[in-house]
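re the bet — no i am not wrong, look at it urself. input seq straight from the record:
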Amino acid sequence: MNYNQHRIVITGVGLVSPNADNLRDYRAKLLAGTSEITEINLRYFGQAPAGICHFDETRYRKKKENKRGTRAGCIGVYCAHEALRDARLEIGNDQAPYQSSRIGVYVGLTEHGTVETENEIFNISHYNYDTKYWTHHHNPRTVLNNPAGEITMSLGITGPHYAIGAACAAGNASLIQGMQMLQLGEVDMALAGGISESTGSFGIFASFKAQGALAEAEDPRQACRPFDLERNGIVVSEGGCMYVLERLDQARERGARIYGEIVGHCINSDARDFVLPYDQRQAECMQQALDRAGLTAADIDILNTHATGTRQGDIEECKAIRQVFAHAPTTFINNTKSIIGHAMGAAGVLELAGNLPAFQDNLVHPTINVNQLDPECALPNLVINTPVPRPAISTILNNSFGMVGINSVIIVQKYEK
């Protein structure tokens, strides 16, 4: 069988975001521009805007299991179960369409282990830093494959699992990995997505603050404002989103509902700077994804931007978009972080999920908090404050870029029988 000829489709979505714990409510909040970014108080640091998730943490595993595991694992387990439920898939029994040994779990992470390490250091500080009080759970909690492994243990999946470490491009990268493993015939079904527990780490906030890249605002809901002239940085959010990926023929055979088909992708590197983005490589990444999909820029209906609310980052991405989309008058552009903040390794997949329902409702959700558009970010068809209806929406391009110069782009198309 030539697996490379197989088309890969999305048949299930499970998510946790700072404003919803399911796709229906999440979409409604995005269309309404409803941000639920709040202010939290971090030890050693103080107050900062942040996106905190609220969901039923014991729906799929017990409180004791959550205590032994990690926040990232808790989010991942919830999202994976919800994705399978959404896909109307059962695993682990004789009637299941996929054997547990033929399911892969691929989780994109920006970082992992920081939260657990900070917690343990704080704990032993109460005992004069005596390491005999250091938990024996620390090592399994901090290995990079932990969230993916927690998902496999909860679901009884015995196929491969691992993390995709690709900074804030990791969510898209995990979808690409899942797609490729299906096309190679390594697995028959993939759970792929991204997770962030970043709000549990004071070090992440302190580092962005030291870089001059942490957002501040009197109203935390207005702190994340990509493209606004007065933007002043990133709002750190936690969250997660997992997708069920299947080969089209198998999805159709079982009568699955199909959200969309992955038709184009690219990952490349700036090879230039630890932090500063580079518009030329971002433009090349978008163009290669289009080329692989056999599409032109004018074929894209929605371009979901990565823009985080940092001055230079937003400008570089806008420069890249102008290079590629100069002759695409019907491409509409939006930003999801303005509503939910920056969910790091989960950012790309959460942002894509928020746009997938546009294939049915034909609406482009807005970017919010743009009170005065920066002239250097003035893109044609940038959707601000109010959703824009379109006659039809069939193709979405999703940008996701990360530190140390990694870029990822994924293109999803509406599935037509």
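see?? The first strand starts at residue 8 and ends at 16. told u. also The first helix runs from residue 23 to 32. so pay up
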